[in-house]
Amino acid sequence: MSDFKRNYSSCPMYYTMSAVEGKWKWIILWKIYEAGIIRYNKLWGELNPIAHKTLSAQLKELEASSLIHREQYNEVPPRVEYSLTEEGRTLIPILELMYQWGQEHMK
Amino acid sequence: MSDFKRNYSSCPMYYTMSAVEGKWKWIILWKIYEAGIIRYNKLWGELNPIAHKTLSAQLKELEASSLIHREQYNEVPPRVEYSLTEEGRTLIPILELMYQWGQEHMK
DNA sequence: CTGGATCCTTGAGGATACTG
DNA sequence: CAGTATCCTCAAGGATCCAG
Asked: Which of A2, A59, A68, B1 has the highest local Cβ count within 10 Å?
């Protein structure tokens, strides 16, 4: 846990930014939300050029925070699907607003 | 401009995350919004232990993005006040939701 | 009081190759 | 296909001192 998280655990704004921190998390959440359910490789393709290491690390953190769910099917070749958890879905209003804000300001 | 910004300028979500990127920007915006108008030193105190270099760099970027306004009074000692611009105020719904989300999940 | 200037650290993120 | 394993870079961020 970083100083950032430790020192400001009492401020809701810090809490939110800690839960979804890093360069990619909001975008990953958005892509998963958009797709509903999405496979690892598809996600990777949409975020390209993200490194596998980066993507899998962020996914793990999001999973550890209970914001996304990882479903693994023991097939050959393997299949893994990601989706938002109930908890993760509580972020949808924020995701929607962020997306809309970008739309309106990006011209 | 980073690869992040360059490669994804077509996706609204990337646009938003680029406009308010970095570890501190959302929190700085929140603190300014909370205060309405706030002096440099007050802001620095609320974010402590943030480095002066970091704070002033982030403030400059936010100013360059037209999200905050910097008003300088030529007094001795100097006084500088920051506030949200019209543009910056369009982020308030997002800030409010982020704050609320933190409140509800931080127990 | 509001930063700028310097120097420095560190860890997030990336490139590439490899594996069950 | 869905990731690890390695190694590496670089720039955000920090500590400290200085200045108008």
From this structure: A68
Rounded Cα gap, residues A68 and A66, in angstroms: 6
CATH number of domain containing A28: 1.10.10.10
Phi-psi region of A75 (alpha: psi -120 to 50; beta: other; left: phi over 0): beta
Model confidence pLDDT, tens digit, residues B11-45: 899 899 989 988 899 999 999 999 999 999 999 99
Q: Minimal Cα–Cα distance from A20 to chain B, Å? A: 10
Range of the structural domain that residue A74 is part of: 24-105
Residues with Cβ within 8 Å of A72's Cβ and at least 6 positions away in sequence, in order, are A78, A79, A80
